[in-house]
Amino acid sequence: MNFIKLLESLSDKEALTKKSSRRDSFSQMKSFGKNAALASIPFGLAATSSKAKAATNAMAAAAFQASSTDVLNFALTLEYLEQEFYQKGLNSGVISDDDMTVFETISKHEDAHVEFLLNFLQEDAVDKPTFDFTGGPGGLTLDPFGENGTDTATAYAQFMALAQGFEDTGVRAYKGQAGALASDDALLEYALQIHSVEARHASKVRRMRMEKGWIVQNNNTLPDAFAPIYAGEENTNQGDVELSGMFSDFGGDDALTAAFDEPLTMEEVLTIGGFFIES
Amino acid sequence: MKRNEIKENGPEPLNGRDRRKFLKLSGMALVGGGLLLSCSDDDDMGMVDPDPDPMDDDPMDPEVFDLGSGNLGILNYAFALEQLEAAFYEEVLKGDYYAGASAEEKAILEDTTNHEIIHREFFKAAISGAVSAEQVLPDLEFDFSTGPNAVDFSSRDSVLATAVALEDTGVSAYNGAGKLIDVSDEAGVTYLGLAGKIVSVEARHASAFRDLVSPNTSNFASDDILVGLDTDPAFDKATAPADVIAAVLDLQFIVTEFTANNLPTA
Prior knowledge:
The complex is a heterodimer. Chain A is 59% helix and 1% strand. Chain A has helices at residues 3-17, 22-30, 36-39, 41-46, 50-63, 68-92, 100-121, 152-176, 178-181, 185-208, 252-259, 266-273; strands at residues 237-238, 241-242. In chain A, helix 1 (3-17) packs across helix 6 (68-92), helix 7 (100-121) runs antiparallel to helix 10 and helix 8 (152-176) packs antiparallel against helix 10 (185-208). The longest helix of chain A is centred in the first third of the chain and has 25 residues, at 68-92. Chain A starts with a helix and ends in a 6-residue tail after the last helix. In chain B, helix 5 (156-177) packs antiparallel against helix 6. At the A-B interface, helix 5, helix 7, helix 10, strand 2 and helix 11 of A face helix 1, helix 4, helix 5, helix 6 and strand 2 of B.
């Protein structure tokens, strides 16, 4: 199964629970680059109404009945992306000597995540996509490995920014699939065990970029095109209880939004991932 | 100073409307939880302490609180861990290490304190909204300054080592609790989602504290805290509540006795 087929099979399933036709949903995902701004509009709307937000959460958690195989192939696609990104980064010469141990550590973990998912999926595993870390498929012209003449400092800054984006996306992606895996105790637990490691990575890389290790509101310090990575993180409603304003002595809504990471749906994640997937 | 008056001036409890909303969402799962327990006891895989301390298990002792069964038990379990973490950081912020810490370390400690207090107060409000008061884990009393693991709040090493231990424990505890949440209705799915929203923040904390202990090494996610799944170590642990509680009680920080004799084990 290749990446496009994975997308198609996902849109098939979404057609059951969403109004948009399979064709619409597929073409939506294919046009992520030019319509990145458009694609973010539904998230913005969702954030204005707690009902819509609850619906978004419910879709991430329950209503979207992706099969375990689909979920694991989705995870594998993300892990392939991270694996190749760090391997190329380690070979690129842009990573400073001081930071090599950190990125070697992360890289080793992504290798193991891929290995685990391949062992689990066996012949059902999706093929590795062809990645383009310039972000070309998303209309970007990054050069995180300094392959296209960008100076090392700039390339490394881009590499770090992408690393943060991928790790924060990974956290939200696994979180969004917890509900879909809830009926399989073993798989749910494996996913949680990966999920928190991605969060350890995210915290570390964020702090290397002089960010807090946690996500405050929906603050995005990456290129504007990556705002969808943080869309929805400003949520202050947990368990259907509005908590905004309740913690003014304890960091206020900034601390509140940082205290809870938020999920992304599979489609939201694939839109972000699509920036870097040629085929 | 506000920090010294947390108990008196904590965030306002949820108002009645919010509590009712939560109750509506949660009621069924909590009622169903008792039924689940009677099944799960039959195949507990030996994970329940076969010989619980009779002192802790005395049904005649009205002073000892049991976390409860089903999803209520899991929520009270999480609430206990968040109480422990929050109480620890509240002490840290009163201590000499914090007073003299670098701006970066102060910011991390202050943020983490706020997050853990928010988690604690959220669980308190959520559970209080869903069940009667006597089923809500009471406010626990802690003592971090005596016993074999006593924290020296003037010592950076002591504070950070304890922070790392508590955050790593929190991560493995939520990871291990996930599959024990009964998701047969919407409320259970919500609880699982909430556990997911919190555990990654605990992991972000763990990473930051580990990195303060050993900067820019592999320590933020080192092999000694991770496990392999027929692979090299790259996965956080997922620890059963019984093991987490045993480990936490072993620290001897929790003064208030409570039991966890009815938590789901499968």
